[in-house]
Each structure stands twice: as structure tokens, then as C-alpha cells.
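dumping this here before i forget
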Amino acid sequence: MRFSILTYNIHKGFSQGSEFTLHDMRDALKQQSPDILFLQEVQGEHKAKQDNIAQWPLESQLEFLSDSHWQHQIYAKNAVYKQGHHGNGIASKHEIQRWENINVAMNKAASRSLLHAEIQLPDSDQKLHVICAHLGLFEAEREKQIAMLSERIESHVPHDEPLIIAGDFNDWRKRVGQYLQEHLELKEVFLEQQGKHAKTFPAVLPALSVDRIYYRGLDLIKGERLTGKPWTGLSDHIPLLAEFEI
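structure:
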């Protein structure tokens, strides 16, 4: 069985130049139509933007982006403030059996979390573990968060069950991957396919490799960095797409 995933920091629905682009994002994501979306910086609610932006949707951003295309969604608010909240989201075409959010933020304003879900894939008796990750900007912060990620995997993900961890790791110094490979036997899609991590930030002229897709217990078919139009004008990151086989 084959399936595809896409990871994307949507920048709360705004482009690098602060243009509201959520409607165009939805169209672009539907055109790609992966089985599972890993989304970071998803706005759950923002009262001022809702009042001042004419195209602001009535539902949450995750529900708006998912529409009827991804019928199963989970959202975890991590950064909570007076006007609303934002966090991570997972949207899936397949049933999400259970999930839990592990908030790893070191301060209330940052949406740092590990959103762990178990998905039942069709025509398969195996469940797929997926973790949507958004890690901190500082190396000392990321070290603690990677330790928490490792502890979560060791305690909740049996080694014979497939696992994907995708998201914004903010690891431009490329120090996270070696630990994940040595301690958790995880592979990274673009490192396996091209010998180097994909550059995803900033979207207009990507120079930093901060977004990743790690996996184990699966066969990688292909990975793709979605550059060019419309992606360069939708968020401050560009998305990564990968196809796997069980």
C-alpha cells in the first residue's frame, strides 16, 4: 500500500509579505491531495483578524483547509493569548484512532509541540504513528525537546509499527538528525534521497533546511520540495511532500 504526506508551516495563513493567503493555500493543498497533512502555526482563533480581514473564515483554519477533502482532523492549541490561539494540526483522509498533544514550549507565546496520532490506513492491519513537530529557535531549547520526543517514541511507539515525524524543526545547524538516526533509527527523506536536507525557508529564496520528514518502518518512494508558484507566495516556508509504501 502507498500513501503520501505533506508537511507545511502555514504561517497562520499569511505570506512572507504578510498577505492573507489562506484561500489560495487551500486550493494548492487540494491540488496536491496527500493522504495526511502535518501543519504548523495553524491559527485556531484570532478575534482582531476575524473582525478586520474580510476573507477570514468562520471556522478554524484547520477546518477551513481540510474542507471535505480531509475528513479527520486534530488541532492542538499551544500558544494562547488575549486575541486567540495557534498551534499544530493534522488532517487525514483516513481514520485517526487516538491522539495526544505534548506541549514542549518553554514560554506561553510559542507554539512548540509534539502532536502524536495513530492512523488506521485502509487495506492494512498496521496502524501508522504520526507526530507533527514544531521545535524551538534556540539550540538548548531544541535539545530538551528532542529528549522529550525520544522519550515519547520509546514509550508509545512499538518498534514494529511504522512512524513518521514531520514538521518545522528549526534545526538550521543540522544537529538534530544525527541523534534521531543513532538513538531512534530514523531516516530523513531528503537526506536518504539526495544526500542533503531540503531548503525550505524563507519561501521566496530558501536558504535554511528547517523542515524535515523523518521515518522508520516504511519504504520511501519519493520526496519532493514544492517550489515555484504558487508556493513561494503563500507562506514564509515551502512545503515538503513524500510518498511511502508499507
